Q: What sequence folds into this?
Protein backbone atom coordinates (compact mmCIF):
# COMPACT_ATOMS: atom_id res chain seq x y z
CA UNK A 1 0.00 0.00 0.00
CA UNK A 2 1.30 3.46 -0.93
CA UNK A 3 2.36 5.39 2.16
CA UNK A 4 1.56 9.12 2.36
CA UNK A 5 3.08 11.22 5.13
CA UNK A 6 1.61 14.48 6.47
CA UNK A 7 3.62 16.95 8.57
CA UNK A 8 2.25 20.07 10.24
CA UNK A 9 5.16 22.40 11.06
CA UNK A 10 5.32 25.07 13.80
CA UNK A 11 1.61 26.01 14.04
CA UNK A 12 -1.84 24.45 13.71
CA UNK A 13 -3.79 26.77 11.41
CA UNK A 14 -7.52 27.06 11.65
CA UNK A 15 -8.93 24.76 8.97
CA UNK A 16 -6.38 21.99 9.54
CA UNK A 17 -9.10 19.63 10.81
CA UNK A 18 -11.20 20.14 7.68
CA UNK A 19 -8.14 19.68 5.47
CA UNK A 20 -7.24 16.37 7.11
CA UNK A 21 -10.80 15.05 7.04
CA UNK A 22 -11.09 15.69 3.30
CA UNK A 23 -7.70 14.06 2.65
CA UNK A 24 -8.61 10.97 4.64
CA UNK A 25 -12.02 10.57 3.02
CA UNK A 26 -10.51 10.67 -0.48
CA UNK A 27 -7.40 8.58 0.17
CA UNK A 28 -9.03 5.60 1.86
CA UNK A 29 -7.00 3.15 -0.24
CA UNK A 30 -3.71 4.74 0.86
CA UNK A 31 -1.83 4.49 4.12
CA UNK A 32 -1.98 8.07 5.41
CA UNK A 33 0.44 8.65 8.27
CA UNK A 34 0.83 11.63 10.58
CA UNK A 35 4.51 12.48 11.10
CA UNK A 36 5.37 13.87 14.53
CA UNK A 37 8.50 14.29 16.65
CA UNK A 38 9.12 12.64 20.02
CA UNK A 39 11.24 15.10 22.03
CA UNK A 40 11.93 12.60 24.80
CA UNK A 41 13.30 9.95 22.46
CA UNK A 42 14.70 12.39 19.92
CA UNK A 43 13.18 10.64 16.92
CA UNK A 44 10.25 10.55 14.54
CA UNK A 45 6.88 9.28 15.73
CA UNK A 46 4.14 8.21 13.31
CA UNK A 47 0.46 7.34 13.59
CA UNK A 48 -2.21 6.05 11.24
CA UNK A 49 -4.51 9.01 10.61
CA UNK A 50 -7.27 6.78 9.26
CA UNK A 51 -7.90 5.71 12.84
CA UNK A 52 -9.16 9.26 13.46
CA UNK A 53 -11.08 9.65 10.20
CA UNK A 54 -14.53 9.41 11.80
CA UNK A 55 -13.71 11.75 14.69
CA UNK A 56 -11.20 14.58 14.98
CA UNK A 57 -7.87 13.96 13.22
CA UNK A 58 -5.14 15.04 15.63
CA UNK A 59 -1.76 15.98 14.20
CA UNK A 60 0.77 17.47 16.60
CA UNK A 61 3.02 20.20 15.27
CA UNK A 62 6.66 19.57 14.47
CA UNK A 63 9.09 22.40 15.18
CA UNK A 64 10.95 23.69 12.14
CA UNK A 65 14.08 23.34 14.29
CA UNK A 66 13.85 19.54 14.06
CA UNK A 67 12.65 19.34 10.46
CA UNK A 68 16.17 18.76 9.18
CA UNK A 69 16.62 15.87 11.63
CA UNK A 70 13.49 14.22 10.22
CA UNK A 71 14.70 14.22 6.63
CA UNK A 72 16.66 11.00 6.95
CA UNK A 73 13.48 9.08 7.84
CA UNK A 74 11.21 10.64 5.24
CA UNK A 75 12.42 8.34 2.46
CA UNK A 76 10.03 5.77 3.98
CA UNK A 77 7.12 7.67 2.40
CA UNK A 78 6.11 7.75 -1.25
CA UNK A 79 4.72 11.29 -1.00
CA UNK A 80 4.81 13.88 1.78
CA UNK A 81 2.38 16.73 2.39
CA UNK A 82 3.91 19.57 4.42
CA UNK A 83 1.73 22.24 6.03
CA UNK A 84 3.54 25.38 7.14
CA UNK A 85 4.74 28.94 6.64
CA UNK A 86 7.40 30.62 4.55
CA UNK A 87 10.31 29.64 6.81
CA UNK A 88 9.28 25.99 6.55
CA UNK A 89 9.31 26.21 2.76
CA UNK A 90 12.83 27.64 2.79
CA UNK A 91 13.98 24.61 4.80
CA UNK A 92 12.25 22.24 2.38
CA UNK A 93 14.02 23.75 -0.62
CA UNK A 94 17.33 22.70 0.93
CA UNK A 95 16.32 19.02 0.90
CA UNK A 96 14.13 18.81 -2.20
CA UNK A 97 16.44 16.30 -3.89
CA UNK A 98 15.86 13.87 -1.00
CA UNK A 99 12.05 13.82 -0.81
CA UNK A 100 8.96 14.46 -2.94
CA UNK A 101 6.72 16.96 -1.17
CA UNK A 102 3.64 19.10 -1.62
CA UNK A 103 3.80 22.36 0.32
CA UNK A 104 0.50 23.66 1.72
CA UNK A 105 0.77 27.38 2.63
CA UNK A 106 -0.56 28.06 6.13
CA UNK A 107 0.05 31.33 7.97
CA UNK A 108 -1.92 33.64 10.25
CA UNK A 109 0.08 36.51 8.69
CA UNK A 110 -0.54 35.66 5.02
CA UNK A 111 3.10 36.49 4.27
CA UNK A 112 3.78 33.81 1.67
CA UNK A 113 4.40 35.88 -1.44
CA UNK A 114 3.26 33.53 -4.21
CA UNK A 115 -0.27 32.95 -2.88
CA UNK A 116 -3.10 35.43 -2.41
CA UNK A 117 -4.27 33.66 0.74
CA UNK A 118 -2.84 31.17 3.22
CA UNK A 119 -4.78 28.65 5.25
CA UNK A 120 -5.69 30.18 8.61
CA UNK A 121 -5.29 33.84 7.69
CA UNK A 122 -8.96 34.75 7.36
CA UNK A 123 -9.83 33.18 10.72
CA UNK A 124 -6.93 34.98 12.40
CA UNK A 125 -8.05 38.29 10.89
CA UNK A 126 -11.63 37.76 12.08
CA UNK A 127 -10.50 36.74 15.58
CA UNK A 128 -8.34 39.84 16.03
CA UNK A 129 -11.08 42.14 14.74
CA UNK A 130 -13.70 40.53 17.00
CA UNK A 131 -11.45 40.86 20.07
CA UNK A 132 -10.75 44.52 19.29
CA UNK A 133 -14.41 45.37 18.73
CA UNK A 134 -15.30 43.85 22.11
CA UNK A 135 -12.92 46.39 23.67
CA UNK A 136 -14.65 49.11 21.68
CA UNK A 137 -18.02 48.18 23.19
CA UNK A 138 -16.54 48.53 26.71
CA UNK A 139 -14.82 51.85 25.92
CA UNK A 140 -18.02 53.49 24.73
CA UNK A 141 -19.66 52.87 28.12
CA UNK A 142 -16.90 54.71 30.06
CA UNK A 143 -15.88 58.37 30.19
CA UNK A 144 -12.31 59.60 30.68
CA UNK A 145 -10.89 63.09 31.11
CA UNK A 146 -8.37 62.53 28.29
CA UNK A 147 -8.63 60.50 25.08
CA UNK A 148 -7.82 56.80 25.31
CA UNK A 149 -5.46 55.08 22.91
CA UNK A 150 -5.44 51.29 22.84
CA UNK A 151 -2.44 49.53 21.38
CA UNK A 152 -3.33 46.16 19.87
CA UNK A 153 -0.20 44.03 19.57
CA UNK A 154 -0.36 41.30 16.93
CA UNK A 155 1.67 38.11 17.53
CA UNK A 156 4.76 37.51 15.42
CA UNK A 157 5.87 39.64 12.48
CA UNK A 158 2.76 40.97 10.79
CA UNK A 159 3.17 42.41 7.27
CA UNK A 160 1.96 45.92 6.56
CA UNK A 161 -0.95 44.61 4.48
CA UNK A 162 -2.33 42.69 7.46
CA UNK A 163 -1.94 45.65 9.83
CA UNK A 164 -3.58 47.93 7.28
CA UNK A 165 -6.56 45.58 6.82
CA UNK A 166 -7.03 45.31 10.58
CA UNK A 167 -6.80 49.07 11.14
CA UNK A 168 -9.44 49.71 8.46
CA UNK A 169 -11.78 47.14 10.03
CA UNK A 170 -11.62 48.68 13.52
CA UNK A 171 -11.36 52.35 12.45
CA UNK A 172 -7.85 52.64 13.82
CA UNK A 173 -4.25 53.12 12.72
CA UNK A 174 -1.23 50.88 12.33
CA UNK A 175 2.41 51.38 13.19
CA UNK A 176 4.94 49.83 10.85
CA UNK A 177 8.02 48.13 12.20
CA UNK A 178 11.34 49.09 10.65
CA UNK A 179 13.02 45.86 9.55
CA UNK A 180 13.75 43.58 12.54
CA UNK A 181 15.24 46.26 14.79
CA UNK A 182 12.37 46.62 17.27
CA UNK A 183 11.86 50.13 15.91
CA UNK A 184 8.97 51.91 14.27
CA UNK A 185 8.84 53.75 10.98
CA UNK A 186 9.23 57.43 11.95
CA UNK A 187 7.46 58.83 8.87
CA UNK A 188 4.57 56.51 9.58
CA UNK A 189 4.43 57.50 13.27
CA UNK A 190 4.45 61.25 12.51
CA UNK A 191 1.50 60.80 10.16
CA UNK A 192 -0.38 58.76 12.77
CA UNK A 193 0.28 61.35 15.48
CA UNK A 194 -1.16 64.15 13.35
CA UNK A 195 -4.21 62.10 12.37
CA UNK A 196 -4.90 61.20 16.01
CA UNK A 197 -4.56 64.87 17.03
CA UNK A 198 -7.15 65.82 14.42
CA UNK A 199 -9.53 63.05 15.48
CA UNK A 200 -9.29 63.87 19.19
CA UNK A 201 -9.71 67.60 18.57
CA UNK A 202 -12.89 66.78 16.63
CA UNK A 203 -14.38 65.02 19.64
CA UNK A 204 -13.26 61.41 19.26
CA UNK A 205 -12.56 59.98 22.71
CA UNK A 206 -10.62 56.84 21.81
CA UNK A 207 -8.75 55.06 19.04
CA UNK A 208 -6.80 51.89 18.26
CA UNK A 209 -3.19 51.52 17.18
CA UNK A 210 -2.12 48.17 15.74
CA UNK A 211 1.47 46.90 15.64
CA UNK A 212 3.35 43.63 15.94
CA UNK A 213 5.81 42.06 18.40
CA UNK A 214 8.85 43.69 16.78
CA UNK A 215 7.87 46.97 18.44
CA UNK A 216 8.27 47.41 22.19
CA UNK A 217 4.85 48.62 23.29
CA UNK A 218 6.02 50.61 26.32
CA UNK A 219 8.14 52.90 24.10
CA UNK A 220 5.36 53.96 21.76
CA UNK A 221 3.92 56.95 23.71
CA UNK A 222 7.33 58.50 24.40
CA UNK A 223 9.15 57.81 21.14
CA UNK A 224 6.44 57.43 18.53
CA UNK A 225 3.65 59.74 19.77
CA UNK A 226 5.38 62.24 22.09
CA UNK A 227 2.97 65.12 21.40
CA UNK A 228 -0.17 63.23 22.38
CA UNK A 229 -1.70 63.39 25.86
CA UNK A 230 -3.59 60.11 26.03
CA UNK A 231 -4.39 57.26 28.36
CA UNK A 232 -2.29 54.44 26.83
CA UNK A 233 -3.25 50.79 27.26
CA UNK A 234 -1.93 47.72 25.43
CA UNK A 235 -3.86 44.59 24.52
CA UNK A 236 -1.73 41.66 23.43
CA UNK A 237 -3.46 39.24 21.07
CA UNK A 238 -2.66 35.65 22.02
CA UNK A 239 -1.44 33.60 19.04
CA UNK A 240 -3.69 30.72 20.15
CA UNK A 241 -6.70 33.01 19.66
CA UNK A 242 -5.79 33.26 15.96
CA UNK A 243 -5.75 29.48 15.50
CA UNK A 244 -9.02 28.31 16.98
CA UNK A 245 -10.99 25.18 16.10
CA UNK A 246 -13.77 27.20 14.48
CA UNK A 247 -12.48 28.35 11.08
CA UNK A 248 -14.19 31.07 9.11
CA UNK A 249 -16.29 30.11 6.10
CA UNK A 250 -13.46 31.18 3.80
CA UNK A 251 -10.87 29.06 5.62
CA UNK A 252 -13.20 26.05 5.46
CA UNK A 253 -13.43 26.49 1.70
CA UNK A 254 -9.66 26.96 1.37
CA UNK A 255 -8.98 23.88 3.52
CA UNK A 256 -11.17 21.64 1.40
CA UNK A 257 -10.00 22.97 -1.95
CA UNK A 258 -6.38 22.65 -0.81
CA UNK A 259 -7.17 19.05 0.17
CA UNK A 260 -8.70 18.33 -3.25
CA UNK A 261 -5.53 19.55 -4.95
CA UNK A 262 -3.40 17.55 -2.53
CA UNK A 263 -5.31 14.39 -3.44
CA UNK A 264 -4.77 15.10 -7.15
CA UNK A 265 -1.04 15.54 -6.47
CA UNK A 266 -0.89 12.21 -4.62
CA UNK A 267 -2.49 10.46 -7.62
CA UNK A 268 -0.22 12.21 -10.12
CA UNK A 269 3.41 11.61 -11.03
CA UNK A 270 4.32 15.25 -10.36
CA UNK A 271 7.52 16.09 -8.52
CA UNK A 272 7.67 18.50 -5.57
CA UNK A 273 5.07 21.25 -5.87
CA UNK A 274 3.43 24.06 -3.91
CA UNK A 275 -0.22 24.99 -3.56
CA UNK A 276 -1.28 28.58 -4.10
CA UNK A 277 -4.34 30.73 -4.67
CA UNK A 278 -4.57 32.96 -7.74
CA UNK A 279 -7.74 34.98 -8.35
CA UNK A 280 -9.57 32.86 -5.79
CA UNK A 281 -8.65 29.61 -7.58
CA UNK A 282 -6.44 26.97 -5.94
CA UNK A 283 -3.60 25.81 -8.17
CA UNK A 284 -0.33 23.86 -8.05
CA UNK A 285 3.07 24.61 -9.51
CA UNK A 286 6.59 23.28 -9.28
CA UNK A 287 8.49 24.35 -6.19
CA UNK A 288 11.34 25.46 -8.50
CA UNK A 289 9.09 28.18 -9.99
CA UNK A 290 8.67 29.89 -6.61
A:
Amino acid sequence: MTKIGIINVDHSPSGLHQFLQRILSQLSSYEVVGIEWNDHEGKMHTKDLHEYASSYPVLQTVSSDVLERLIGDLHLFSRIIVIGGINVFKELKKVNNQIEFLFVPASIHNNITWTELSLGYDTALNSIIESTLKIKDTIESLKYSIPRLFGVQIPGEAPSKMLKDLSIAVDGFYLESQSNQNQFNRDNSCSIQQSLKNNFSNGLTYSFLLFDERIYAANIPEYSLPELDVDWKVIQIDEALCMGQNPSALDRIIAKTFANQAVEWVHSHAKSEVLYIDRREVKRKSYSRV
About this structure: The chain has a mean pLDDT of 90. The chain has two domains: 3-120+247-289, 123-243.
